[in-house]
User: Which sequence fits this backbone?
């Protein structure tokens, strides 16, 4: 690897989804990701996959690390405490990365767009305690690069409906917790009033407790399925399934060609191209869990040229993949931009504690599986 410092090297990761699969926690790779961050601090040895490209070496410590969205699984706040418990070790290690002089940019994704609301909460695991960390809600540009989570390129997320679904989950969670806490406090006050023989206070508390009980009854029995409580949460889940299109392939399995052909990339570019101080040449995103690129838009196989304007065809696309293990998905990928502005799409082999440079012609199916992963039990549809 080159040692000339022409630019600050950048490390990019996305879609760790810490907390996914709770309570089993089988889906997210928080243990492997913590080990990966230790590798970033101490080792950074990178080897080619098959020896046919690049040269084995040691990567320079990154001066900028971009967390490209869906780092925390905050889509359903009912499990927020367990989410932060799962993220405890990775965020603690992230503090060490920041303390070594690496600026950390957190670009919010559709699963963690509420991250700013957690400032000051879960103090030991709060991202706000990570040195030099900055939260960005939409896109982040750095010279010729622009970074976004990628849900902006998914037609299912172009309308703000997905934010409404998150609000519904939060409403259900807050409603249930508020009632639970109020009942516990009321019962405690009843006991205190009874002990001190304060009959008038006792009657007032019992009345309030009756009202709360009525609320519970109304939520659970009297209202139809689309109004309150667990039934409201079920409606949100059904709406989420509808928004995902009820497809056999989930939207996070979309490849570059699908994103281009449905017109989402062009629409996003039209809306944002005038907002960048410098015309970006490389568009980096995640969300689809498909590690791909770098490749120019005009070179993506199977696209319809009419779906892309001339100015967009020369842009380079890179997808950072993800860090999940479920079904036919087993990925631990990351992006590294070197001092010489080389774009390296890599994977982390936790068993060998090595970074592995991936070939640019990754097959679509392999882009959700690291080359060292066990084959899936069923073929890809």
Assistant:
């Amino acid at each position: 690897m080159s040692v000339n410092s022409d630019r600050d090297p950048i490390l990019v990761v996305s879609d760790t989804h810490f907390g996914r699969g709770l309570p089993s926690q089988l889906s997210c790779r928080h243990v492997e990701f913590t080990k990966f961050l230790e590798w970033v601090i101490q080792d950074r040895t990178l080897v080619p996959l098959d020896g046919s490209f690049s040269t084995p070496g040691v990567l320079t410590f990154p001066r900028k690390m971009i967390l490209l969205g869906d780092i925390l699984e905050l889509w359903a706040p009912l499990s927020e405490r367990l989410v932060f418990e799962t993220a405890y070790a990775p965020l603690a290690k992230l503090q060490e990365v920041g303390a070594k002089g690496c600026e950390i940019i957190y670009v919010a994704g559709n699963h963690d767009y509420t991250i700013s609301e957690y400032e000051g909460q879960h103090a030991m695991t709060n991202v706000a305690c990570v040195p030099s960390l900055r939260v960005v809600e939409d896109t982040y540009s750095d010279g010729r690069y622009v970074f976004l989570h990628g849900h902006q390129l998914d037609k299912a997320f172009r309308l703000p409906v997905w934010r409404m679904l998150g609000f519904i989950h939060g409403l259900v969670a807050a409603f249930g917790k508020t009632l639970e806490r109020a009942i516990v406090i009321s019962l405690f006050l009843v006991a205190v009033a009874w002990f001190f023989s304060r009959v008038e206070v006792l009657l007032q508390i019992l009345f309030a407790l009756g009202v709360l009980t009525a609320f519970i009854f109304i939520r659970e029995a009297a209202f139809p399925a689309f109004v309150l409580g667990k039934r409201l949460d079920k409606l949100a889940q059904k709406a989420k399934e509808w928004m995902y299109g009820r497809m056999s392939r989930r939207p996070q399995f979309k490849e570059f060609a699908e994103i281009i052909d449905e017109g989402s990339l062009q629409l996003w570019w039209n809306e944002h191209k005038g907002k960048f101080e410098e015309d970006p040449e490389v568009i980096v995103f995640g969300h689809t869990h498909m590690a791909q690129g770098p490749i120019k838009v005009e070179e993506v196989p199977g696209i319809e040229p009419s779906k892309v304007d001339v100015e967009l065809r020369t842009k380079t696309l890179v997808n950072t993949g993800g860090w999940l293990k479920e079904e036919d998905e087993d990925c631990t990928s990351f992006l590294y931009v070197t001092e010489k502005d080389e774009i390296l799409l890599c994977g982390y082999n936790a068993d060998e504690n090595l970074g592995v440079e991936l070939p640019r012609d990754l097959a679509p199916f392999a882009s959700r599986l690291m080359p060292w992963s066990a084959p899936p039990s069923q073929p890809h549809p």
About this structure: Confidence is low (pLDDT under 50) at residues 222-228, 243-249.
